[in-house]
Write a structure and sequence with these properties.
The chain has one domain: Immunoglobulin-like. A hairpin with an 8-residue loop joins strand 1 and strand 2. It has 85 residues and is mostly beta strands. It is globular. Bound molecules: copper (II) ion (CU). The site of copper (II) ion (CU) has 6 residues, from loops.
Length: 85
């Protein structure tokens, strides 16, 4: 998660909106922005991170192949997909 100073109306973003990992791998999300965010599933498949304050990190493991959408609960434009292959 990062600040996006180039976009005043949507001032935060995930640094990657599409992430590919192998089955059994994990995604590490670090909040490098100035705001509070979440790493939340759009349609299930992993546990909601809950609030992530600046400088916090969560690690999410994926054990089943598929595509898993994610979104920030606070900022509807912060979305992406984890592809587990
Ligand atoms: Cu957010």
């Amino acid at each position: 998660m990062q600040d996006d100073a180039t976009n005043p109306t949507e001032p935060y973003k995930f640094s990657s909106s599409s992430v590919s990992i192998a089955c059994g791998g994990k995604v590490v999300i670090t909040n490098n922005s100035s705001g509070t965010h979440t790493f939340s599933p759009t349609h299930g498949g992993f546990k909601d991170s809950g609030n992530m304050n600046p400088s916090s990190t969560v690690s999410v493991s994926f054990f089943f192949k598929g595509s898993y959408g994610f979104i920030c609960s606070y900022h509807s434009w912060m979305t992406g997909t984890v592809h587990v292959t």
